[in-house]
Amino acid sequence: MLSLISHELLAKLELRVLAIQRTVAGSWWKYRNLISPFSWLWLILGSGAVVRHLDQEFQLETGQIHLVPPFTQHDCFCRQRLDHYHLHFASHLPTGIDLL
């Protein structure tokens, strides 16, 4: 029964991709106290950066994927270079609540 419920929910999931882009950021990539109504997903291709949220600091390194859920206050910065894909998206259940 659980798989049927999950399948039904997934079938009704509203997924909106707001942006997808490859970016090579430099030391200018410094943001503090960001709070976004959508999710951020980064795929790190080269070098690295730091993201802070949920009282933790995360080192973004080559080959990693990092997710920041919506409405999560976060800081992010790059000391030198960050080659990455970023995906900004919203995922809502039929009730209007964000999946994440």
Descriptive report:
- The protein is mainly beta and 100 residues long.
- The protein has one domain (14-92): Jelly Rolls (Sandwich), CATH 2.60.120.
- Helices cover 11% and strands 57% of the residues.
- Strands 1, 2, 3, 4, 5, 6 and 7 form a seven-stranded antiparallel beta sheet that branches.
- The radius of gyration is 15 Å and the shape is elongated.
- 8% of the residues are buried.
- The mean pLDDT is 90.
Count of alpha/pi helices? 1
Q: What structural class should be given to the helix and strand makeup?
A: mainly beta
Which strand-content bin applies to the residues? over 45%
List unreliable stretches of 5+ residues. none
Please state the second-level CATH architecture: Sandwich
Q: CATH first level: which class?
A: Mainly Beta
Averaging pLDDT over every residue, what do you get? 90
Helical coverage, percent range: 10-25%
Large-scale geometry: elongated
The tally of strands reads 7
Termini distance? 22 Å
Describe the biggest sheet? Answer: 7 strands, antiparallel
Number of discrete domains: 1
Could you say what the CATH topology is called? Jelly Rolls
CATH level 4 superfamily: Jelly Rolls
The topology string of helices and strands comes to: HEEEEEEE
Q: For the CA atoms, what is the radius of gyration? A: 15 Å
